[in-house]
Amino acid sequence: LVARRVSRVTRTQHAHRTAPHAPPGDAAMKRLFGAKKAEEPPPSLEEASANVGKRGDAVDEKIRKLDAELVKYREQMQKARGPAKEHLKQRAMKVLQQKRMYENQRDQLYNQQFNLDQVAFTTQNLKDTTVQVQAMTAANKEIQRQFKTNKNLDISAIEKMQDEMQDLIEDSNYIQEALSANHAMPDDIDEDELLGELDALELDLQTETEAGGAVPSYLVDDDTEEALPSAPTATLDASGAELPSAPQGTTALEESPVAQKI
User: Which pTM does this prediction carry?
Assistant: First the structure.
C-alpha cells in the first residue's frame, strides 16, 4: 500500500513537471504592461472648416472694433490742436497697423477655409460617385438576370407580337371599310366626267352672276317661279268694313270718318 502511494505521488509530480505552462491571461498582461489607449478618430473636414470659420469671425470682430476706434480718433483729431492732435495721430496710426495685421490674418484664414471646403467637396463627390457606381453595377446585374430568366423579355417574341398586332389592325380596317361601303353608288361612274361637269357648273354660275346678279336657273326651285297673290289695296276701318278708296291727292286715312273726328 505504501509502495502504491509513493508511485502515485511520483507520477503526479512528473506530470506537473512535463505539463506546458498556460500563457498569462489578458487581465494579467494589462496589469503588467498597461492597456493600450483607444485612438481618437481624426477630425473631419467639416469640423476643421468650422473651426477656421470661427477664428475668421473672431478676427472680423476685432477689425470692427478697431474701425470704431479709428472713427473716434478722427473725430477727436478734427477738434484737437497742437501736440494733442499729434498724440491722437500716433495712436490712430498704431490702431491702423493692428487693423492691417488682422486683415492679413483674416485673408489667410479665409483662404484656408476655402481650401478645406474644396477638399471636402472633392471627398464627398468621390463618395457619391462610388455609391452611384455601386448602384449602377447592381442594376446592371439585375437587368442581365431579368433578361436571362424572364421569358416575357424575348426580343424575337416581342417583334412577332408587334407584327401580328399590325396585321390584325389592318384586317380590322378592311372590315370597317367593307361595312361602310355605299352600295347605292354605281361603280361605273367616271371621275373625270364628274370633274368636267363640276367645272361647267362653276362657269355657268360665274357667267350668270356677272350678267345680272340673279340666281342661276339650275339653283332656282320651280315652285318659286309661280306668281304670288298681290297684296290687298283696300283700306279697312276699325270694324273691319272696307272704306272707299281715296281720290287722287288724298289718303284713305285722311278721308275716313275717324280721321275727320281726330
Answer: 0.43
pLDDT along the chain (262 residues), means of 10: 59 55 56 66 85 92 92 87 86 91 93 93 94 95 89 87 94 89 66 78 76 58 52 54 51 45 42
Left if phi > 0, otherwise alpha if psi is -120 to 50, otherwise beta: which for 213?
A: left
Do residues 56 and 106 touch, judged by C-beta distance below 8 A?
Answer: yes
Q: C-alpha angle 96/69/112, rounded to 5°?
A: 55
Q: What is the C-alpha to C-alpha distance for residues 237 and 241, in angstroms, rounded to an integer?
A: 6
Other C-beta atoms lying within 10 Å of the C-beta of residue 72: 13
Q: Which helix (H) or strand (E) holds 195?
A: helix 191-212
For residue 126, how far is the Cα from the chain centroid?
27
Cβ atoms of residues 63 and 103 within 8 Å? yes
**What is the CA 196 to chain-centroid distance, rounded?**
59
C-alpha cell at 44: 473631419
